[in-house]
Structures are given as structure tokens and as C-alpha cells.
Amino acid sequence: MRPTQYIAETDDKNHLVAVWIQSREHHAPRVFDSVTDRFDATEPAEFSGASERDITAWLLERAGILQDTSKG
Average pLDDT by consecutive 10-residue portion of the chain (72 residues)? Predict the structure, then answer.
């Protein structure tokens, strides 16, 4: 079974603006939706486009688990 893939989309300043997800259930990647999608750090996953740490933090911020500290 292949792991879920998380693909970072960044802007021209290399800031993370979206994360695309390709799960086992879906054939094509789509933008992560914090209402319908769940991120489970214990499940096998692959990360690209940014570090695992940055993508994980972005996902957790969207889920309301972490505060976004990048904004002043």
C-alpha cells in the first residue's frame, strides 16, 4: 500500500500557500481541505515541495491545533 503524499505549493517568496494531498482513496491530487481531510502524523506519508516539518506545521495550523506564528 502506498503512503499518502503531501505536496507543498509555494508562492514566489517560497512561503507555503497550499498543500495538495494524494491519498490511497483518490487517483488525482487535490488541495487539502481541513474540513473533510484528516492529517495523521502516525500514518506513513511522503512529503515534497517543502520540508516534512513545514508541511506538517501548515496542516496542523489549518486544523486549529497550532497557532500560525508567521504573521506578526
Answer: 91 96 87 89 93 94 67 50
Residue type (1 letter), 34: S
| Environment class of 70 (CB within 10 Å of its CB; exposed 0-12, middle 13-18, buried 19+) | exposed
Considering only CA atoms, which of 6, 26, 27, 28 is closest in space to residue 18? Answer: 6
Contact 42, 1 (CB under 8 A): no
Compute the half-sphere exposure of residue 69: CA atoms within 13 Å on the CB side of its CA: 5
**Full-model pTM:** 0.82
